[in-house]
Every structure is written in structure tokens, then in C-alpha cells.
């Protein structure tokens, strides 16, 4: 049986509606928000110990040791929410609103394509595409809610109910996760760090406009690659393409 992997997947609302010219930049922005949020949350080791990283057209998916799941829930998710809010406060005309799924399960990783596949990885992406997650985004205030997340029942039971996370189970809402046209139906749990749209008691506060969106500048980190192309830099300052022989 393959080793258990913690897994996270990300995409953005409205990505498919962007013109083709804008989609690569949007993909890079999502990756940058995710990576910088891990670092800002004090979880650089999650990036260093990723078991797989799989860009997809409208986002990305990554695997990491399960021991980091409590910290991902407690520290990374709120930081990513704040990062998206800060970015959107500075880019009112082109905001990025993120969806995220978290799962735990066995995934085969052997270093040869196709890698990091298995039923658990499929479920990760089904959760990201599920109706309740998209509905939660659609029903929220775009000036308040910049990130919606969905936890698999396995993550909810093992991490939250198990007491390993500071996030209380009652902060999540039970849903029946389904995907149009797919034979997928699972119990899952919605967690919205900055909820809105459910009445005055659920209304958050929009981020203030102006200023820099990003965290205080740090030396950019890099990832070593063997063959292929590595991308470094940031979305605003132009990208540096480094070719490895």
C-alpha cells in the first residue's frame, strides 16, 4: 500500500473566463500566493518536503507529509486568506478568489510519470470541483470572502475531531460533495476563514485598499530541478526563465 500523503489543491473562481493571454499570469499568481503564504505561516518545510507538485491550468495540487496537516489548517489557511484579501484590495479590477481542498490518503509516488496518482488524488480534485465549494464562493460577498476551503471527511475526523488542530470542528459545515457529470459523492466539510453572505452575524470586513499586497520582501526561494525549466521571480516584476540543461 502506498504511503499516506497530505494533499492540497487550489484553483480560482472565473479562471476559465479569462482570455488565453491572461491565464498563464493568473496561474503564476496562484502559485506565488500559495508559496509565500506557506513561508509567511512558518511552514517553509512543507515546500521543502513536498512529495509532488502538479500544476493544473487553473491552479495546482501538492502533496506533503501528513504530520503537517494540523499546521496547514491552523496557520496556512488563514494566512492564504489574508494574502488573497491584501492582493485584492490593491487590484479591485482583477481580484483573485481562491478555492482550496484538503485530503489525506494513499498516493503512489515513484518519481516516474505518471506520478502521484491514485483514488485519493482523484478525490482531492473532485472535492475542489464540488458543488458545495463552488456554491459557497458564489453565495459569499466578493469583498469579504477571498478563500473558501473544503476538508475531506478523513481530514476532518483525523485532524479536527482528533484534537490535533486548534480549529474547532464546529467551525466547519457538513456538506454532501458531488460533481456534475461525475460518479462522486462524499461527506465533506466546508471551512470559510472569512465568511459572509449569511446575515449580519456572518458579515466580515473588507480589506482596506492601497499599499503593497505582498508580505514583507524576503529573498526569493528557488526549487532545484534536474531537467526542464524552472520559473523564478514574481508576477509583478516580470518572470525570469532559467533553463537547466
Description of the molecule:
With 245 residues, the chain is of the alpha+beta class. It is 29% helix and 24% strand. The strands form two sheets. A seven-stranded mixed β-sheet has the order 2-3-1-4-5-7-6, with helices on both faces. It has a two-stranded antiparallel sheet with strand order 8-9. β8 (228-233) and β9 form a beta hairpin. α1 (23-40) crosses α3. The radius of gyration is 17 Å and the shape is globular.
Strand order in the largest sheet? 2-3-1-4-5-7-6
Strand content: 15-25%
List unreliable stretches of 5+ residues. 199-211, 216-245
Cα end-to-end separation: 35 Å
What's the assembly state of these chains?
A: single chain
Q: Report mean pLDDT, rounded to a whole number.
A: 81
The structural class is alpha+beta
Amino acid at each position: 500500500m502506498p504511503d499516506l500523503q497530505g494533499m492540497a489543491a487550489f484553483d480560482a473562481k472565473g479562471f476559465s473566463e479569462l482570455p488565453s493571454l491572461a491565464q498563464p499570469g493568473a496561474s503564476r499568481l496562484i502559485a506565488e500566493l500559495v508559496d509565500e503564504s506557506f513561508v509567511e505561516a512558518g511552514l517553509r518545510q512543507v515546500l521543502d518536503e513536498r512529495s509532488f507538485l502538479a500544476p493544473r491550468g487553473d491552479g495546482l495540487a501538492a502533496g506533503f507529509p501528513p504530520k503537517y496537516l494540523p499546521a496547514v489548517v491552523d496557520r496556512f489557511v488563514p494566512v492564504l486568506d489574508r494574502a488573497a484579501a491584501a492582493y485584492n484590495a490593491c487590484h479591485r479590477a482583477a481580484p483573485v478568489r481562491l478555492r482550496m481542498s484538503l485530503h489525506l490518503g494513499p498516493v503512489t509516488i515513484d518519481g516516474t510519470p505518471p506520478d502521484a496518482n491514485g483514488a485519493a488524488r482523484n478525490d482531492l480534485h473532485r472535492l475542489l470541483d464540488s458543488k458545495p465549494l463552488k456554491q459557497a464562493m458564489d453565495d459569499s460577498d466578493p469583498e469579504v470572502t477571498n478563500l473558501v476551503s473544503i476538508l475531506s471527511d478523513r481530514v476532518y475526523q483525523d485532524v479536527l475531531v482528533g484534537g490535533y488542530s486548534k480549529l474547532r470542528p464546529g467551525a466547519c459545515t457538513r456538506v454532501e460533495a458531488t460533481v456534475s457529470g461525475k460518479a462522486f459523492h462524499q461527506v465533506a466539510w466546508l471551512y470559510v476563514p472569512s465568511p459572509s453572505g449569511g446575515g449580519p452575524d456572518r458579515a466580515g470586513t473588507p480589506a482596506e485598499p492601497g499599499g503593497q499586497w505582498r508580505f514583507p520582501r524576503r529573498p526569493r526561494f528557488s526549487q532545484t530541478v534536474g531537467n526542464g525549466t524552472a520559473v523564478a521571480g514574481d508576477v509583478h516584476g516580470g518572470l525570469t526563465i532559467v533553463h537547466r540543461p
